[in-house]
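Morning!

This is the sequence you dropped in the shared folder:
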Amino acid sequence: MAETLLVVTLVAAALYTVLAGADFGAGIVEGVIGRKGRERVDVALAPVWEANHVWLVLIVVILFVGFPRLYTTISIHMHIPLLFALLGIVARGSAFTFRHYDPSPILDRWYTAVFRAASLLTPLSLGLIVAGTAADSLPSAPDGGFYAQFIAPWNTAFGWAVAVFVCSLFAFEGAALLAAERPRDGVPLPYLRMARRAHFVTIVSGAVVLIVAAVTDLAWFDDLRGSPLALIAMGLATVLIAGVAYAFHAGKPWMLRIAMGAQACCVLSGFFLAQFPVLLRTRGHDFTYQELAAPASVLRGLLWAVAVGLVIIVPCLSYLIAIYKTHRVTARD
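The structure's back. C-alpha cells below.
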C-alpha cells in the first residue's frame, strides 16, 4: 500500500510539474515577450490554470496522512520556503484575477508585477524544499539555534542549484505552452528563440546541479551513479532534448507537449529513484519509506480515499481542459 501511494504521489508531482509548471513559466517569461505576449498568456492560462493545484493538494494529503513523519519534518524545518511558496501561489492567483477586473491602469501595473514576481517565487521555493529532502542538511534532533533548525536545511549550494533549475525548467515549459497556443500548421512555432534560450539555460542549470552535488560529496549523487533506473531516466531526459527541438522547428504542438512532459517526468523520476527507498535524508539518519509510512490500517483507508477522489477528479479535470483548450475557429481568429 505504501508503494502504491508513492507511485500516486510521483504521478501527481509529475502532473503538477508539467501542468502547473507551464503556467508558472508563462508568468516568468511574460516580462520578456511584452504587452502582446501578455494577451497570449491570458489566453493560454485561463480558465484552467488554477485547477492544476489539485495535484499539489493531493500530494500534501498523501504525505500528511500516509507519511506523517516526512510531512512533519518538512513542514517544521522547511516552513520558510513553504510559506513563500504558498504566498506566491495566493499572490499570483489574486494578481492574475484582479488585473482582469480592475480598470485602474496604475493598479494594473502593480498586479502584473506581483503576478510575474510570484510566478518566480513559488518554483524557487519548491526547488529548495525538494532539494532539502536529499541534501543531508535536515537536523535529526531539535538541537541548535534558529539558523541551524530553520535556515540551514534549505540554504545550501545544492538547494539553490535545484531551485534555479526548477525555475529554468518552468520557464521553458511556459515558453512551450505559449508557443503551442493556436499554432499554424506547417510553420515553426512562435517564441522559438526564447524557448531555445530557456531550454539551454535548463540544460546548463541541470548540469550545475550534478556538479554541485559531486563537489559537495552528497550521498544522493553517489546513489544516482549506482542506480540503473535513475540513470536511465536521466538518459531519456537527455535524449528527449532532440525531440523537443524538432517539435518546435517542425511546428508540431502535440509532439512538443508530449516530449516536454516526458522530459520533465524523467527528470523528476530520476531525482527520486536515485535514493529510493530513502525518502528523507537528515544529518544523523536516512529514512526509508517503510520507516516513514503510517500504520497499515491508515494506509488502507487513505488508499481507498485517494482511489475514490481520483475517479472524481480525473474525468472532471479532463473535461474542463477539453472544453476550454479545444481550438475553435471564430470570427476573431
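Headline: Residues 319 and 325 are 10 Å apart (CA to CA).

More detail when I'm at my desk.
O.
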